[in-house]
Specification:
The chain is elongated, with a radius of gyration of 19 Å. The longest helix is centred in the middle third of the chain and has 30 residues. The protein has one domain. Helices cover about 80% and strands about 0% of the residues. The chain has about 200 residues and is mainly alpha-helical.
Length: about 200
Amino acid sequence: MNDVDNALSQIADIQAQLAASTRFRGFGPEAMLLAGLLTLLAAVAQTIWPESLASDPIRYVIFWAAIIAGGAVIICTEAVSRSRWLHGRMADAMLGATLRQVLPFAATQAIVAFVVCQFAPDSAWIVPGLWQILIALVGFSAVPNLPRSIAWAAAWFFLCGTVVLILAGSGKVLSPWMMGIPFAVGHALIALVLHRAGGEKHAQN
């Protein structure tokens, strides 16, 4: 490795360290609210048309997996554009650091859903609660790189996940609102945290 390559490697390492220790400002309240509204509408739709959208636990899980994926696309699309605007040259490093935090949990969500639905369909009732607890763990792990009050939203998801596991386990029945309420309120909480953090940043400037 010549001096130029060595210098570029050191610069990349410095950028990665800065990205890991810098608050990520790519997530916006608008996308969070939109994702929360999507989950609320999904719960209403599943309540009105249960035969089509929740006729059995497997269809329930597939439906909500699609809704979560749609919300993730909305949030990630805005995160990319906001990070390029707010973080400039650090955007790629910041996005990479954030993805390394989020992707393991997202992959775990997908694997849990697939394995349970494929090999233990009678236990599909466990999936929504586990999803919410995994999202809570994402929030707790992201506290160093997001506003610290994000921990309140993470605690909400953790509490909801625990309650959903208890309720679903008691009757082995899944309600649309076991996903609709936790996700709608949770996204609203995150949006509020991000909005307040943005206001504090403008006040400091």
